[in-house]
Amino acid sequence: MNKVGLVSSPHYQEHLTYGHPESPERLSKTLSVLKSSSIMSQLVPIEPTPIEMQYLTLNHSADYIDYVKKFADNGGGNMDVDTIVSPYSYNIALLAAGGIIEGLNAILEDRINKCFALVRPPGHHAMPTNSMGFCLFNNVAVGAKYLLQNKGFKRIMILDWDVHHGNGTEVSFYDTSDVLFVSWHQYPNWPPNSGYISSTGEGEGEGYNINIQLPVGLGDRAYLATFHQIIEPAALAYKPEIIMVSAGYDAHFRDPLANMNLTVTGYSELARQTVKLADKLCDGRMFCTLEGGYNLDALAYSVLGALTVMADKDAIVNDPLGFPSCETEDESIEYLIQQIKEKQKLLGN
What pLDDT does residue 326 have? Predict the structure, then answer.
């Protein structure tokens, strides 16, 4: 059994988005499902605190941070075409990033070995100098840079199973081998002109950026095939000191913002395989932070599944939502895997 922490706060629901898909109800529904299960008694609660500015500026410019603050202080609105800011959003974004630091510190202090940060706003699209895609600050990138620059880490693996390309995270680590970044994403989708297989990093980072661009309609088997044939061998070669996950649940077949066919069972298996890698390679250290997921039931039960296998990798996960009525499994997935293998140095090239 693992010691698993849960970063959570009712304040995260104070980031008001007024009918937007990235809504406060995402967390209230998820917490309701978690509390109705037996999982909460197995988790170590972790109270978030606002991030210290010295850590936020590891990934974001001081000018941009100040801009977000002033935008919220002036009443908020649409910061960009997709991202809504309310008067409390700046403070809640600081609390979200701070929750990442608190969760990582709990791992470093051996109070837990795995953690799920149930935070909002999400972060993986946020760039160093601008908001994007519902995101203000890049939570997972801030956390990784905190470990690299303040805690002596040398090798971090970030897995992004959100259905959209984690472009902000990619930008943050594109030229370094300190982070091995892997993003699964529906292609084509959003953001446009992003997430190509050919984008493999540059300079010292060449070969440490892996994009798995998946055709519309693929489901559990395709995701698990790419895990076993791409992620697992890359991780074994890289030997990360911690595995961090941008845990988005919008590849579920019920999600309104994408067209993939993952199930709660499939997501739980991705989490289970990640747990096994973390246990094998980095003393069990695994850290998940919430990204997307806009069908409330799919999000809630997928988070429950992840926490269930994080606590016990052999646990059986019940899937109350079932399977899509028509699941596409593209035979070209093996060709896609071969294309990726040919471009990645960690996969023998």
Answer: 72
Taking the alpha carbons of 143, 247, 347, 213 in that order, is the dihedral positive or negative?
negative
How many angstroms separate the CA atoms of 141 and 100, rounded? Answer: 10
CATH of the domain at 69: 3.40.800.20
Q: What is the DSSP string of 104-150?
A: HHHHHTTS-SEEEE--SS--TT-BTTB-BTTBSS-HHHHHHHHHHHH
Q: Tell how strand 77-78 and strand 84-85 pair up.
A: antiparallel
- Closest Cα to residue 61, out of 153, 182, 172, 150? 172
User: Helix %, strand %, coil % for the chain, to 5?
Assistant: 40, 15, 45
**Which residues sit opposite 290 in a β-bridge?**
247
Under 8 Å between Cβ of 257 and 214? no
Dihedral angle, C-alpha 16, 17, 19, 22, nearest 10 °: -110
Q: What angle do CA 221, 223, 227 make, to 5 degrees?
A: 110
Q: What pLDDT sits at residue 209?
A: 97
User: What is the length of the chain?
Assistant: 349
Backbone angles phi, psi at 174, to 5 degrees: -65, -25
DSSP annotation of 214: E
Residue 121: asked if its preceding bond is cis (omega within 30°), the reply is yes
Q: How many structural domains is the chain composed of? A: 1
How far, in Å, CA of 84 to CA of 135, rounded? 9
Which tokens belong to 168? 């902000």
Using alpha carbons, select from 263, 267, 83 the residue that is nearest to residue 190: 83
Q: How far apart are CA 100 and CA 50, in angstroms?
A: 10
Domain extent, residue 255, equals 4-347
What positions carry a catalytic annotation? Answer: 125
Residue 322, number of CB atoms within 10 A of its CB: 11
Q: In one letter, which amino acid is 41? A: S
CB neighbour class for 210 (10 Å; exposed up to 12, middle 13-18, buried from 19):
buried
Low-confidence ranges of the chain (pLDDT < 50): none
